[in-house]
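Example with several molecule types.
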Amino acid sequence: MNIKRSGGIAAIALVGAIALASCAANEGGGTEAPSDLSGTLVGAGSSAVGAAQETWIAEFQTANPEVTITYDPAGSGAGRETFLAGGSDFAGTDRAFKDEELAAGGFASCAADSGIVQLPLYISPIAVIFNVEGVDTLNLDADTIAGIFAGTITNWTDEAITSQNEGVELPDLAITPVHRSDDSGTTENFTDYLAQAAPEVWTYEADGVWPISSGEAAQGTSGVVDAVTNGTGTIGYADASRAGGLGTVAVLIGEDYVPYSAEAAAAVVDASPFVEGRPEFDLSLELDRTPDSEAYPIVLVAYLVGCETYLDAAQAELVKAYFTYMASPEGQAAASEGAGSAPISDALFERVTAAIEVIG
Amino acid sequence: MTTVRTIKAKQRPGDRVFSASTTIAGCIILAALAAVAVFLLAESVPAVVSGPDELRDGADTFWAYVAPLAFGTLWAALIALVIAFPISIGIALFISHYAPRRIAQGLGYIVDLLAAVPSVVFGLWGIKVLAPLVTPFYQELTTNLGWIPLFSPPASGTGRTVLTVGIVLAVMIIPIITAISREIFLQTPVLHEEAALALGATRWEMISMAVIPFARPGIISAAMLGLGRALGETMVVAMVLSPAVVISFVLTGSSNPATIAGNIALNFPDAYGVQVNALIASGLVLFVITLVINSVARIVVNRRKAFSGAN
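Resulting structure tokens for the full complex:
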């Protein structure tokens, strides 16, 4: 009943919007001429970008009613394979294509001698969340975080924790670290942070699957948040937009403890160098998890990947328009609202815009 | 067909259509099974022959990769069966021989209703209600009975252990075991029961002498059907269990062996290349495990049937 009614209202609203839009178009004279873009764009890849893609697609299709965009959040690996095989026009991936993959080439959607553009358009801070009664924020350095997740620091009253948090009353309670039980980009970026920032404590490589068997595991972001919320003395990591009312960790960078924030997350991307030896418009980042400046180092960066030159010029135009929208301040703001990501900085925006210009 | 007849009834169109369609239906199930088996076998090969660095979880060979998963699958299903079996038999006997008729009918419906609850709902219940509820009990168990290897400390801080999964799975298989056993208890020849009672047996003696022996093969097959459901259950395990790559009998700890079905559900979305083959190959292992258990159950049932008086 309710569904029907709201559906009806939505339909009326939609019809009204279209009618008004076409009126405005007929009257002409406006600077916002409706786009003449039309066609279908297919994307696939990282599920981390899924929520942002939903927002972007909805907004872009409203502005360009003749365009249909689909994004299949099948996972980063699947997204890269699909793009390589020519099954999609663009890919979303938690890691950029590597040198050897680029050397092998064979991108089926691209023109024969075309390179690809890899744009870090989705930056998402990962919060370290915990559930200790009466404590909202904790200051921890990388070694301590790594020790907790590796199972070497097992109590909240451990010297390593209390010495960094004077004045905070921590209970004599066992620590239960919670990690993701499924293969995820969040885990890959979190373990990459631990490996880079605490190499002596965390001796494992970055991986989407949690590398050790100690600690609790839960399915997906919701599962981890739920386990941390319902458990006692729990600590976990999750997309910052989902941290809710849980306590969060401020991470030691240089001399200061930096809590997560959109600006601090974007700052770490700015502080990171691009991968060396790549073509000019391949903006793959060598994420620096131990920056000197005040930045929040635990971030997930997802890339949107397209061709420099497409086989089909019409597709190229669509991709260019869509990428331009995603990189634009409006697009980034929409993703920030819809998916809790951190908007890219102005400096990165300029680099990205230059790269999008070459798509053709 | 085995009897030789000289006079044959004239085949009407209906006969031909019906016999043809039943034959086709019979063939489809065989073809489907064969197709699944071929798919599993073909896709498994790259994983079985893969090298050390290609598989996840630091396993050197496919067999090292699948062993903890196979163990976890059997372990979780066994826990579920141990919990569910006595309860189910109790419910079934209560419905068939103890409860007043009106209550029995209502109770039967309620048990059937339990079977209609989707497993994802049980999963949510496991996460939201059961796990937080049992956490303090697990902590008590590990402090007081920690010397028993099953409860060796430390206790899980979130209650997402293999025992919790076992309890949820038990709730899910109770309706299956109960429904089948109840039907079989009701089929006990009334003459046997009355004879036992006439000889002065109490109701319990009557049940243990007449009903249980008669129903034994049925009870076994009911348990095996329940076990099959528990072995293949995916959603509940994926949602509730806190898995790790271990072979461990500890019921209340943080590191629990993952199950095959749960592992596939968790890792398939982001898997690619040989990892996909490894997941499919683990599916083949589950297929074989289920096949073996069902075959053993059938053998047991067939062997017992002769003595039960069921025929």
